[in-house]
């Protein structure tokens, strides 16, 4: 318990100090703050803990499961939490697990890891290659789960010193299924004050993090449209109503939504990535199906794009004498909000990561048109999402996520463990005083 020995003194001070807005920085000096982060990193690098985390990650990697099918992954998580004596709730959003460490009282801070794999064949030949044909952990979620379990082990060792409650959120279906949305709908995170999430990155060196305040990833949605005409022989097109021609005009017109209707300073994307129609060289089909994605950095821009996509598709089809229907299928593919990092949490993150890694190891994260369903959490709860670098040039090239050649540099695992534990611990310390003055509407899980 030496890592948090000063917490007892902090609790005593809380009983005598009347100012509810007191910040941790006014109680703990920089050296004490640094000790938290550095000590957690030292604990995470212990050989026995590192080996255990690696085994967990490799076991999950060998047995990948798709969104809302993570039953064995969930079972592994629950077994490990049982061994640690950590209380949890299951099932949450079909296969999700939420564990609890600490007092069971406010403040509540959550740490999130996604569990699902991708529907693709692994092409990396190694001892722990996926055993399930057509499924692969090609985005690092196996490492995310292992790191959160590692953080759970360290935090459980310090549970008597925690000044609140840490929620361990093992989330299903990040890859398009909106698992975060379903976890929120379950109500289990209703009283959470803040949530942190991470993603390992093949773009930056090991020992670095990439992060920034404000919008960091776009909101996104998918659309599919069926354009119906009248099929016939390609030699007599005058007797047909050609849906391929109509669909081609639609694809070109959709590109004008960004190039001619959008402020160049307001980043937006409309991409048609699916075009299916016809099966013969000399037959005009009855219908064509197109589909794609649209993305924006504000709710207003996103709503405008959605409206204009419907208008362009249906009206351009009508010009070519076709009928068109547009389906956004939000039940199976929910719209993802913009991922926005909370400003106050950004300052905390910089303090923690700076003390642990060095302030020069924090890279400014540039906004991207990619999406993350952590955005559902960050829309409902103050949230913070960051990238954890894992590149080591001595270990060869690391491919980007969703590649069949994707690899994880397992040396990154202790950094994720330590950042999880440090962020949760320092958040609870900073907000313990505030929680004692608010309405005591608390969880009863513990």
UniProtKB/TrEMBL annotation:
Domain Peptidase M20 dimerisation: 219-317
Source taxon at top rank: Eukaryota
CDD domains tied to this protein: M20_IAA_Hyd
UniProt keyword list: Hydrolase, Signal
Record's keyword annotation contains Hydrolase: yes
Coiled coil: none
Record's signal peptide: 1-23
Pfam families attached to this UniProt entry: M20_dimer, Peptidase_M20
Entry-linked InterPro entries: Amidohydrolase (IPR017439), Bact_exopeptidase_dim_dom (IPR036264), ILR1-like_Hyd (IPR044757), Peptidase_M20 (IPR002933), Peptidase_M20_dimer (IPR011650)
Family to which the UniProt record says this protein belongs: Belongs to the peptidase M20 family.
Protein name stated in the entry: IAA-amino acid hydrolase ILR1-like 4
Organism per entry: Solanum pennellii
Gene: LOC107007631
């Amino acid at each position: 318990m030496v890592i948090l020995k000063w917490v007892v003194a902090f609790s005593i001070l809380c009983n005598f100090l009347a100012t509810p807005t007191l910040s941790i920085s006014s109680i703990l000096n920089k050296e004490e703050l640094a000790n938290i982060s550095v000590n957690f990193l030292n604990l995470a690098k212990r050989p026995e803990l590192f080996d255990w985390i690696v085994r967990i990650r490799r076991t999950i990697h060998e047995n990948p499961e798709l969104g809302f099918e993570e039953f064995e992954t969930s079972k592994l998580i629950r077994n490990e939490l049982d061994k640690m004596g950590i209380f949890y709730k299951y099932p949450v959003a079909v296969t999700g697990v939420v564990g609890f460490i600490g007092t069971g009282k406010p403040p509540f801070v959550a740490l999130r890891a996604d569990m699902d794999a991708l529907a693709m064949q692994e092409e990396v030949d190694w001892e722990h290659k996926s055993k399930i044909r057509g499924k692969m952990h090609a985005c690092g979620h196996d490492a995310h789960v292992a790191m959160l379990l590692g953080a759970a082990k360290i935090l459980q060792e310090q549970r008597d010193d925690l000044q609140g409650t840490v929620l361990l959120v093992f989330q299903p279906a990040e890859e398009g299924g909106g698992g975060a949305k379903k976890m929120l709908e379950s109500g289990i995170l209703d009283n959470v004050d803040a949530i942190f999430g991470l993603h390992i990155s093949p773009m930056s060196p090991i020992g670095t993090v990439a992060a920034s305040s404000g919008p960091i990833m776009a909101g996104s949605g998918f659309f599919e449209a069926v354009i119906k005409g009248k099929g016939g022989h390609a030699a007599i097109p005058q007797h047909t109503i050609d849906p391929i021609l109509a669909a081609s005009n639609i694809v070109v017109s959709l590109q004008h939504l960004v190039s001619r209707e959008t402020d160049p300073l307001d980043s937006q994307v409309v991409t048609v990535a699916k075009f299916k129609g016809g099966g013969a060289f000399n037959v005009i089909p009855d219908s064509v199906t197109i589909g794609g994605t649209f993305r924006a950095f504000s709710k207003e821009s996103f709503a405008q794009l959605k409206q204009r996509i419907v208008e362009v598709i249906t009206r351009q089809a009508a010009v070519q004498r076709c009928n068109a229907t547009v389906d956004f299928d939000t039940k199976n593919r929910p719209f993802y909000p913009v991922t926005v990092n909370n400003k106050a949490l950004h300052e905390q993150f910089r303090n923690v990561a700076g003390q642990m890694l060095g302030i020069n190891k924090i890279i400014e994260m540039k906004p991207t048109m990619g999406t993350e369903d952590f955005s559902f959490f960050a829309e409902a709860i103050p949230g913070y999402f960051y990238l954890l670098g894992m590149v080591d040039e001595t270990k060869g090239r690391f491919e980007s996520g969703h590649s069949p050649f994707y690899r994880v540099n397992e040396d990154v695992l202790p950094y994720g463990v330590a950042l999880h534990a440090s962020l949760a611990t320092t958040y609870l310390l900073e907000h313990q005083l505030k929680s004692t003055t608010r309405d005591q509407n608390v969880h009863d899980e513990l």
